[in-house]
Design goal:
239 residues, alpha+beta, two-stranded antiparallel sheet, globular, 25% helix, Deoxyuridine 5'-Triphosphate Nucleotidohydrolase, Chain A, 5 helices, 2 domains
């Protein structure tokens, strides 16, 4: 019998509903405790997933009002462009927003999550919504162990009809997978941009590779400027 099978779990398999309930009911000070709150309805817990709801924090991109977002620009410039492009909304229960065909909306989950260091999660859309053309998570569905905060839904309408969306709708579902031997969970990463997030803002302007690209572009421009000055000075000497 292998060590993994002796422990009774497999890293390739998601936790079952019984295992999820045990993790949710661990003592508050337990390092194995999975926190998802509020869980409004017991039916949110399925055989291997937990349904997640739309929260009250929303963000809409107004693409017609800005230039292209270029990561090689300074983080300040990219941040200013995104500020101009983004419309933020806080919806209370009973209010809604219309997602038109082709549009993208970011929305936080209603639930606040805290994953222990031995669990990672995979966020997907529910098939009920996928069948009518609502794409819930285009990329980045993996949630690292040690994450704590609200998750962000990337809602895109791929159909030809508008959708009316409101807080409380169950649009996503999350499966949890065991893992061991993680030396640096998400909450210990220096680059963890979304820990304890309470807004849907993107951290694209501060990504290391984008900051490095901006510095590289600045050096190229400086070299070009110095080369132009050198040629200009040389022409003056020749005259």
């Amino acid at each position: 019998m292998t060590e993994r099978s002796a422990k009774g779990w497999d890293e390739a398999s998601p936790l079952s509903d019984a295992q999820l309930l045990r993790r949710l009911c661990e003592p508050i000070d337990s390092q194995k405790r999975l926190v998802i709150r509020p869980l409004i309805d017991p039916n949110q817990i399925g055989g291997t997933t937990i349904d997640l709801r739309l929260g009250t924090e929303w963000q809409v991109m107004r693409t017609s009002q800005v230039q292209a977002v270029d990561p090689s620009q300074s983080p300040e410039r990219v941040g200013d462009l995104l500020d101009d492009a983004i419309g933020e909304y806080r919806l209370t229960y009973g209010r809604d927003i219309v997602l038109h065909p082709g549009e993208v909306i970011l929305a936080l989950t209603l639930e606040y999550l805290r994953l222990p260091v031995d669990l990672w999660g995979n966020l997907e859309g529910r098939s009920t919504w996928a069948r009518v053309g609502l794409q819930v998570h285009a990329t980045a569905g993996m949630v690292d162990c040690g994450f704590e905060g609200y998750l962000t839904f990337e809602l895109q309408n791929t159909s030809r009809l508008p959708f009316v969306l409101s807080p409380g709708l169950r649009v996503g579902q999350m499966a949890f997978f065991p893992v061991e031997g993680v030396s640096r969970p998400y909450n210990r990463k220096p680059s963890a941009a979304y820990s304890f997030q309470t807004t849907t803002r993107t951290a694209i302007a501060n990504q290391h590779e984008h900051v490095a690209l901006n510095r590289y572009q600045d050096r190229l421009h400086e070299r070009e400027r110095m080369a132009d000055q050198f040629h200009f000075s040389s022409d003056e000497d020749f005259d």
